[in-house]
Design a protein that fits this description.
The chain contains eleven helices and eleven strands. Helix 5 runs antiparallel to helix 6 (266-281), helix 5 (239-258) runs parallel beside helix 8 (297-342) and helix 5 packs antiparallel against helix 11 (397-430). The chain has helices at residues 2-21, 25-31, 39-43, 189-199, 239-258, 266-281, 284-287, 297-342, 355-363, 367-391, 397-430; strands at residues 54-69, 74-86, 103-106, 115-117, 127-129, 132-135, 140-152, 164-173, 181-184, 206-215, 227-236. With 431 residues, the protein is α+β, with helices and mostly antiparallel strands. Strands 1, 2, 3, 5, 6, 7 and 9 form a seven-stranded mixed sheet that branches. It has a four-stranded antiparallel sheet with strand order 4-8-11-10. The longest helix has 46 residues, at 297-342. It is rod-shaped and about 155 Å long.
Amino acid sequence: MAALQTLALLSVIGISGSQTSECSYFNLMSHLNLTSSNEALQVTRPVKSWNTTTLVQLDMVLFGILGVDEKSQTVALQVLIRMSWRNELLSWNPSEFCGIDILNIPRSMVWIPDIAIKEDASDTGSVQEDPFLKLDPSGLLSGTSRQQLTYTCQLDLFRFPFDQQSCSLEFYSLSHNSRSLKLATTGNGTAFTIVSKKIKTTEGEWTLVELQVTEDAASTLQRVGSSLQYTVVLKRRPFLYIINLILPLMFLLFLDLASFFISESKLSFKVTVLLSVFVLLLNLQTILPSTEEHMPMLAIYCVSVFTLVFFGVLEAVLVSFLIEMDDSLREEAKGAVRAEVDNQPKAQRPTEPTEETDETEENQPDDQNLLKLILDKVQLTLLEVLRERQDKRKPGCFRKLAKLIDVVFFAIYLTTIIISLIVLFVIWIGK
């Protein structure tokens, strides 16, 4: 009887000892054949049947928007990528291993999907990968990586600086087709957008509008493999460009419009405004993006203002020339009148009647003196008319033409300013 009790006690001790030894991670890794180098687990797709499709779920959120380079057509983002897939060869029952339900294993020990980004232009050193993968009892592996991602994007800069850019990131497998590997996501674009806006640390000139996710997107590389496309929609903050360029140009245009209300030094004033516009446009080398296909709206605005001010200077030169020509012709006409009066014989020159001559002629009312008196009166009247024409400066044809040109250019200026304000307001509201 005592021998049987001793045997039972030893058996209980042996069982508890075996269970204690099986509670370590090492025993679990030995059970999963991960303690030694196993190249089959590293290079072979982990499925029990070759025709089984491996589902890879890839989620991406944004940490920050580092910048957009319009000249090189690239976008720089700080992203967090989480990728998960199922390894059918690595599974266990947690109850057999003291309830272990998670295991961290090095990346180099298992097969990892060869996922790449088609538009990626980043350096390899900009990726910070988690050195361990998380493995659950069902064989689900998951890993995260943080990356400073720089990728190419065809930017549409026509509405610059009120533009909104949609740049796509296409994830695909380098060596597997759609029958072997399928890319998907665990959430949707709305959820990723909300998470990105909450964890985002920097924005700068740009702000995130939304993230869009499209599974099995049509690719331009004509691949038969599965693909996953993330579309990042960004909107520019135009306040800096409004303060530094748009408003100053508008103010200079108003000053040029005010020059129509001055008569003295009008040409010099317009030349000063033109030089101010030219100096302001020197900033376009660093502000405006270089694009060959379409000229940005801001460039059209700047060129239009410069052209309008330039033609305003030419209009001022033309008006000054017409006024000087009219004054010159007026002086010539005055000189001709003086010469005509001076060239008349003294006997024919009209003389102003005096009181003595009037009394004498009244005392001698013969026909000859009466006729002479009438002629003198007529000549005196003509002389007074000529003097009035000399003194009274009526505008000539050239002065009328100059005034007409001024009115036309003023109407063009005013119309251009009104249209510019309306267009800017519509763009600002619709951005």
